[in-house]
Amino acid sequence: MADQKENQKQGQINIELDEKVAEGTYSNLAIINHSVSEFVVDFVNIMPGVPKSKVKSRIILTPQHAKRLLKALADNVNRFENSHGEIKDYEQPPIPLNFGINWSSIKKAFES
């Protein structure tokens, strides 16, 4: 109780990570959509030779949080590359998915 009061005094948040969430979920595809009020990021694991997959996790963000995430990812990729060298972006064959999404716009986003 004293620790909780001390954290609140300092403006800190106590974030808990349960065992199931700590295991993580592997994803090799992220599908991003947005509206005026939110960004939706669906994480998928596509396996070679398997014609079907499911969304494994969905994160919904405000536009402000999406922008903060973009900056945090860029900062972390830069630090990683400074320590380990450039991350090679190998050309991937097109993924023939039927998800009701304009895939050409997604491809353009990855090319820029």
UniProtKB/TrEMBL annotation:
Top-level taxonomy: Bacteria, Pseudomonadati, Bacteroidota, Flavobacteriia, Flavobacteriales
Protein name as it appears in the record: DUF3467 domain-containing protein
Any Pfam family the entry gives: DUF3467
InterPro entries given in the database record: DUF3467 (IPR021857)
